[in-house]
Structures are given as structure tokens and as C-alpha cells.
Amino acid sequence: MAALLNFVENDLLGSVIQVDTEQIIVEIENEIILNKICVGNIVSIETSKQHEKLIALVDKVTRKYVDTLSEESDADELKVSSADYIKVSIIGTYHSVYGSEHDIFKRGVETFPQIESKCYCVSGQNLQNFMNILGKNVNVDKRLKIGTFMIDMGADAVLDGNKFFQRHAAILGSTGSGKSWCVANILEKASKLKYTNIIVFDMHGEYQSLSEGSDPIAKRYKIAGPGDLDTPNPDVLFLPYWILNREELLSMILDRSDSNAPNQASRFTLHIRELKEETLQKEEKTDTIETFTVDSPIPFSMEDLLKRLKDDDTRKGIGANNKPIKGDWEGKLTRFIARLETKLEDRTYGFMFKPLDEAQLYGWLGKTICNLLGYQDGQMGIKIIDFSEVPSDVLPVVTGTLARLLYDVQFWMNSDNRTPFTIVCDEAHLYLPIKEDAESVQKQALSNFERIAKEGRKYGVSILVVSQRPADVSKTILSQCNNFVVLRLTNERDKGVIKNLLPDSLKSTIEFLPLLDVGEALVVGDAILLPSKIILDKPLDCHRPISATKDFWDEWDNNEPDNCAINEAVEALRKQCRM
Ligand SMILES: Nc1ncnc2c1ncn2[C@@H]1O[C@H](COP(=O)(O)OP(=O)(O)O)[C@@H](O)[C@H]1O
Ligand SMILES: [Mg+2]
Asked: Where are the domains of the chain?
């Protein structure tokens, strides 16, 4: 078995002159090769052990000029000579033999190099061999190949699919840097597996292309918009109010500054519990009646709930001599009822408060979750959920409720039958904000996602966070991510956030971020051998997100705006429904 890394005389850079815990300085002896070395290159340093080589990244290349007294001449003639150094950070250790295995790369350092240890440049065939260590056991068409390495475009950049999805990941970058394309690229690769299970929260309806055309790789659902309520097509998804738990419902309806808020919340809760119990009786779910709670997702009629609240609000009390006196709840629920009714009438909330008759049936929930997580009749493993018509003020509750529901089902599933799934949160800053900035509705949603971020791994649920404003995304969630795909990022605050998420030895790589081109990314985490700059693959033409950047200048020169279309749009705005 030939070793993967074989160095020849020409690869020799120089030898170690200074060793620190993380950084090593190498004095260059091979001037020709120095000209080819740049920051970000990979080098290998010998250790005292035959089968171990340190792998390090070049941080800095310097040439120092020194004035020396010329020896030959007697005169005080100064001569300038140069000496070249590179500073490298150790990333890990390559073991050509490791117990019974061979060609293993491990993070961390066991044996530090000694002064005078030789340092080699890893390039050409060595580089390719090294980069391929990761994907070597995976069938070529099932690897999570996301692109090619920038330092050597011939070498495939393959991620460890298990590690990437296992413990949450994030795709971050300024707007237009290529995040959505990167998501489509990853989905495309994942779709090659037999039972992929990924649910994409699509905020702008831009992933529709993945579910259409000659080669669809995803099934798309759309959260019902105002125009879908009366004649919905089968892909329209309702999230009826009864799947929300008590806190989620209250966060939307209750005004906590109202002096009667505690009374309102307690009556609301009481009635919902009773109504749910009545449903269970009707359905003859005798077991469930014993243990259900007010938070259990059980259908009940909103009309009945309103009737009971109104009854509370108007019922008189009975005083001495049967005289009517002010009732216990009389007048205390009026404002609450009014707030609730406003929501009920608003068609933008129709997906929640005007569900189809079918979505009021007991069996609806099981069927719907099977559609989202199950695998029947050649169902697609990737589901796109289009939230583009959900009003922004409830976006957090809706995304949070859906995520919680999926997580809860997974939580209660028999552990032997669980199969893992990932939720892709596109535009995460919209509904996973930093806690201090969040309103009560958002806090509710956030806590659902934070729970998944903290505990999801145990139950096989992970999140892929996608955002253009990492500085505005919940720190709890980002800090749980193990892998980062960072595209071009120019904003200082956002860069600061990324810097804090990276290990110390990589902090200097931050400075690359504003310089990356569209579709180029720095990938860091346990899913990749080395933190690397990668040129991401483009998704196939037919799978490209419909976010196409407009060419303003060209369009202004070629495309006349269409007044008819403007009028139609005005009418669509009134109808709250696209034609
Ligand atoms: N990997 C890539 N290679 C080449 N061009 C890309 C790549 N990714 C994105 N682009 C270009 O950048 C544009 C914006 O990409 P997009 O993924 O929508 O950005 P974001 O989601 O970060 O706002 C695309 O329309 C495409 O023209
Ligand atoms: Mg995008």
C-alpha cells in the first residue's frame, strides 16, 4: 500500500525554527517554491514519529531583509541579504498507519515537531490524495460533493454527509452571495439517496423549481394564502389553530398589558381543555382522555370556544335573594374576544383560523405528518414548504409551530423506528432573531427552535440555518452549529459573529470573507477535513432557485414596463391573491 503523501525534493520548503502551541515558523530554504506559496496553502511537517505528519495551513509569508557587514571588504560596506519565513497554524495530524487502519486524518496534535523538522508543500497529486481521504469510502455518486477546492480545482470538495447533517449547520453570506444556490446544490446531492428526509422552510417561494419540470427532486407544499381558502388545491397546507399549544395561541391573541389578561388566559385554557375532551369522547379515545393536556393537538370547534367565552363575558352572577349581580367574568373578556374575532375574520390568517373541513378531522394530523415525514408510494424525500404568503407578524409562530410539531412527533416515536430529518431554515433572521430583540410571539417560536438546536441530535432532528444577517440570528442556535459554509460577507458586525464561532486557529481566515466571489465559500467544521475555500457547484439549470438577480441596466435598456400588469398587480394586492 503506497502512502498517500509522498514528497520529493521539490516539495521541500524548509525547516522549523520556532514552535508554539498552535503556530509554527518555518524558515524557507527553497526560494523557487516560496513564490508559489500563498496564504491558505497546506503544508506538511515531519514529526519524530514515522507514520505521523502534521498538517498545517499557511497564515503568513514574510521576507525579512537584514543588513550585514560584508566580510570580504575592509571598508564598512553594508550588504542586504534576505531571509524568508512562513507562519503556519496546525490543523491536525495525518497518520499513514493508525492501528489497523491507514490514511487517517485527525484533528488535533499529539506530537509537536522539533526544531529543524522538515516542512513540505502539499500540492498536485499529494493534495488530491489528501483531499480525497474523506470521500474514499463513499460511493462516488452518493458523496456530498459540494464543489471543488480553490487551491486545486481538480480536487473534489466532499463533505461527510453524516457529520454535516448530524449536529446542525449554517450557510451564511451577504444577500446575493449564493446561499440559495448552495442550498439547492446540497438538496440535489441529497436527493440521490434513497430515503432523504429534508424539510425546507422557503420564505420567498424560490425553491419551487426543485419540485417542477422533467426532473423534480422535491415535493412542494404551500401554506394557504388568502386566495387559497375557498378552492384549495391538494398542495395547499393548512395549519389549523388546534395544533398550536396554549402558549402559542395566547402569544397571538392575548394582550399581556390588559389588566384582565390572567382571567382571559385562564378561561380560554379551561374551555379549550373541555372542548378537546369532548372531541376525545366523541372519537372514543378512552386512553387518550386519561392523559391528554390542554397542549395536546386535538381538534375542537372555534365556534364553540367563542360561544363559551361570550357566555362567560355576559353571564350575570347570582346574589342574595337570587338577585342578579355582576358575574365573575362579566365584561372581563370583551377585549380578548374582540382580538380573537379580528384574527378569525382576517383572511391572511386563514391557513390557521379558516381550515378546510378535512383539517378539522381527528385523523388529519397523522395524515399530514405522514406526508411531511413519511415515505409512501414513492413519495419525495425533500419537502419544500412555501411560506411566502404568510403574514410576517405570524411567521415566527407558524414556522415555530410546524418545527415543534415535527420535533414532537419524532420525540414521541419509538426510538427504534425513528429516522432522522433536517429542517432547512432559509432567511432564518426573519423568525429566529436574537432573544432580546424578540417580541412575545417570536420568543415562543424561538424557544421551539432552540430546543431542537439543543436536544435535536438525540432524536435525529437537525437544523440547517441559512441567513444573510448572522448578527441578527439567535446566538443559542448558531453556537450549536458544528459546520459553517460562509460565503461572501462584507458587514463588520456579521463578520464579528462568525469570528466568535470559529476556533482560534482559524480567526485569521475571516479576512478572506469580503474577498470571496459569488458562489465561493469558506467551509469549516467537522464535516470537512480542513477548513477550506471552496468553489461551490452550481445546481442544475432546472433546479436553480427562482431568485435570479435582475440586470437593472440591461432591463432598463430593453424591457418596457407593462401597464396592464401593473393594474393586475394592484387588483391582486386588493384580493391578496396572485392570479
Ligand atoms: N455557485 C454559484 N456559481 C455561480 N453563480 C452563482 C452561484 N451561486 C449563486 N450564483 C449567482 O448569484 C445569484 C444569487 O444567488 P442566490 O443563491 O440567490 O443568493 P442568496 O440566496 O445568497 O441571496 C444567482 O442568481 C446566480 O446568478
Ligand atoms: Mg436566498
From this structure: 9-131, 168-239+358-547, 255-336
